[in-house]
Amino acid sequence: MKQLKKKLIIFLVVTDFCKIAIDFLQNGPNTKLYNTAAKKLNWETEDVQNCVYSLVYLLVISCKHKLNESDFRDCILTIGFTEEQQSVLSSFYETKNDEILEALKKTSFHEPHYNNLDWRFEVQVASRSLLHQCQPLVAMNLTLTTEKSAINETIKENIYLQSNLTNLLHVTEELEKALVASKSRHARRIQNALS
What we know:
62% of the residues lie in helices and 19% in strands. The protein is built from 7 helices and 3 strands. It has helices at 2-27, 31-41, 45-64, 69-79, 83-107, 165-182, 185-194; strands at 113-124, 135-148, 153-164. Strands 1-2-3 form a 3-stranded antiparallel beta sheet.
């Protein structure tokens, strides 16, 4: 009887954490839920929050890599979950997989990408009051594209800029530094983790 009661408690706790994780994916963090769960379990609120974040991370990575049920089960067992917890998490993952993917699509951030840059060089060589001046400027039309996956549409945005040569040289130097940094080992590890 004690064994059955223990399994039932584990089932209920894991099920509650799964519900909180889905709520987190759909609505963001909810401290009231964390406080309620912490009081039920006699835990710290921060511990409950960390458990929810870890569970969300596990579900997101599993959905991102499209793990099937057996791979997900193996992953859970290697992490250290018990058989009872594994069965609850596996059934939850199987039933909520589409819901998790839908929540991820809604929250995914689409960065604008470079499409085109048109520029022209403008120089004001004199005015009525200053006959011997030279003010070179560069006018640019930067075109960026953003893909909206929810509506399957590509949006183009034109940004008009004007800069003097000093600022343009500074921007060029900063972009070159960013390009060098993007080729570093650390940046490649981050890109591999995101893909």
